Each structure stands twice: as structure tokens, then as C-alpha cells.
Amino acid sequence: MEGSGDDGVKKEGSPPGSLAKSGNDEAASDNEPPPSEPSSGFDGDAAKENTFAQPVVKKVVPPTIPIDWTRMNKCDGEQSPADAIRYPWDVVIIDPNEPYCEVVGTAGMKITRMGSDLQSHISPDTTDIVLRSHLIRKMEGIKGLKKLELLELYDNMVDSLSIDELGGDEEGYPGKNLSYNVIRDMSPVSLCPNLQELYIAQNKLKAISGIKHLKLLRKLDIGANRIRVIPSEELSGLQNLEELWLGKNKIEKIDGLENLTKLRRLDVQSNRLTTVDNLHAQVDTLEELYLAHNGITVEGATVESGLALKFTQLNTLDLSSNRLTDASPLSHLTSLTDLWISSNDIKTFDDVQPLESLTNLDGIYLEHNPVASDFEYRMQLTKIIPSLTQIDANMIGCVPTFDRGPAVMDKLKKMQERALEKAAAIDETAAALRDGDEEKMCQES
């Protein structure tokens, strides 16, 4: 009966398919959460509109990544190869009677310690110690080796020159190679007055120091560092210096060479030069001058105290990768045999024409200039400079220094003879065929 409070009786206005509740049931239902809607009674859109449940948030747990294999320079767990303790005698068998100790670490185990007791493992008359390409951080064990002539610790991890090891010994150490390390201060070399050759290239030097009293020094290589200035005070005492290598630094001006009156080779390539100057003292001694990879212009190459000087011994000049637009600054350098001016901005053969006065020039590198793209590039160069035997990397004709002329000519003659013989044989065959055809025609007629 409609409108009654009996259980199970459908009330007016109730949604279809539902049963009316009694008063007690309604009161009890006030304290209960509403029932969830049945998913089967509605379509998908209706189900979404009537769903009040909070979305389930899943916690993302990143997978475990095996990164042990990415840890570089590790061995024995967390130990770096440079932290291992390994002496020269752990790597090779050292003969205590030999006057030299040489261990190159390009393959196999690396030495990490020279050893304070090094002299107990080598001959007291040792002249050469070469420990190249290892992981040595400290110089030790060499003090007191009276006959030591060469110490080479090239390509290690040495970060300083040991005063204790270098000091107090007036003999020995004429040669020292400490290139490719991490040395920041070279001043302790002042304790080696008998040094004749010193190589400290590819380190972290910012200044040249400790060499002004090294009067016997003949070769100095401090390239690939962070040097900005050539100090005249430090170079003032190097009267016997013959080779100075300063490439790959940050030098903006050539200076401080006024006392280097025996200098034969000077390398200032890959710096920040825009001019070449202050070479008065080397006008009669300089043989090779390397100035590639700078910013030198024609004006910078005509400074009176630089390339404008009449060098009497200069045979090799490298001005590659600069800003030259013509060769006019070089026309008076008649002693040159090799000239490298590739990768500049020389556009025409008129710009090359000043080199016609270089009658001793044997080879020239002019590639990577606009003029080198000309179809007659090589032919025109040989007309301007008839003495050339090499243009860029290619030889011209038969070069006397290789003595290949007679051999090439003999081979060409033999090839020509074989070609003539083959041609003669073909002619004979053709003639025989013609004679045979004529004879046959006569017989048929």
C-alpha cells in the first residue's frame, strides 16, 4: 500500500528498483556511510560521475642500478690505482750493475712510488733514470747520485719539485724531463746548476722562475703551460741557451731575449702574438722560427726589430694559421729553405710574387689559402719560385735528396720498350692478315 511505513513496501517517489525504508532503518542509516553505487547498474559515464572514492596513488620505487662498473680508476674495492704502493722493483727486475734504470709504463703495472731507498736497488754509478708514463706523485730517492745525467719522469702525477732531492748537490743532473705532470712551481730547478736540458712542458706553470743562474742550460721546453710573460731577468743568465720552446701558452709579446746570443731555435706558436719583435740578438744565430697559430698580420710581420731584420742563418720559418694577406714581409729572407704559410688569407699570385727573391727556397706550404684553389696553382708557384722541389706535401719532379730519378727513368724506358714491342707485333699480325687476304683474292680470280 503506497505511503505506508511497512517494510518492503515501495514508497512514492522512490527510485526505480529500490525499496522504502522504515523509520527505524532511516534513523539507523544516519550513522552509517552511504552505500557504494553498484557498478553494474549504470553505464561507464554515469559510473564516473557518481564515484566519490579517492584515486589510488601508486608509489614508484626506482630500480636498483648497478653503477659499480661506472666507477673509473678504481681497483681493489675503492682503492685508486694511484693509491696502490708499487715500486720500480715490483714492476721489473732491476739489474744493480747496469748504469741505467728504465721502466716505461705504457703497458702493464704502473709505478706509484720511486722509493726513498731507490739507491739500494740500482747501481751507484747510474747515469739514467727513466720512469715514464706511471702514477708517481713525489720525486724521491735520487739525492746523492753523483753520476746521474738524465732524470725523466715524463707523464706522471708529480705536483712539485722536491727541494730536498734537488738541493745540496753540485754535480750531476744535466738533463731533466718532467713534462706532462702537474707542477705549478719550477723555481727549485735553481738547485741544479749543471742542468743542460730541462723539459717541463704540459704542466700548470704560470711563470718562468729559477733558471737565471743555469749558465750551462742549452735546451728549455716549457710549452703547453699558462705563461703570459717572457721575463728578461730570468733569461738574462742563459748565455748558452740554443733552443727555447714556449708554444701553447698565453704570451702576447716576444721579449726578454736580448742576452740569448746563441739561440738557434725559437718556438712561440699557439700563443697570442699579433707582432714579431725584439729579435735583434738572434739576427746572426737564429735558424728556425716557429710562429704558427697566432694573430700575426702583415703589419705585425714588418716590425723593424722582428722579421724585418736580415737574418743570416734563418732557414725555416713557420707562419701558418695567422692573418697574412700577402708575402711581402718575407721577401728579404733569402736564406730560407722552408717556408710554411698555409691557412692564411693570401688570395692571388700577385700576393705571392714577393717570394721570387727567395732563390734558396726548397719547399713551401701554401695550402688552405684562397690562392691554393686556383687551377694553375702548382704551375704558377714554380714559375714564381723556380727553386722549389716541394709544394705542400707533394714533391716536384725528381728530388735529388731521394735519388729516385735514374730508377724512375729506367722503369719508364722499359715500359716504353714493351709498348713498342707490342705495337710492332700488332702491326706484323695485321700485315700478315692483309697479305693472306690479297693472296686468297688472287687465287679466286
UniProtKB/TrEMBL annotation:
A GO cellular-component term linked to this record: cytoplasm
Gene3D superfamilies linked: Ribonuclease Inhibitor
Span list, region Disordered: 1-57
InterPro entries recorded: Leu-rich_rpt, Leu-rich_rpt_4, Leu-rich_rpt_typical-subtyp, LRR_dom_sf
Keywords: Leucine-rich repeat, Repeat
Glycoprotein as UniProt keyword: no
The keyword Repeat appears for this protein: yes
Pfam families, per the entry: LRR_4, LRR_6, LRR_8
Protein's name in the database: U2A'/phosphoprotein 32 family A C-terminal domain-containing protein
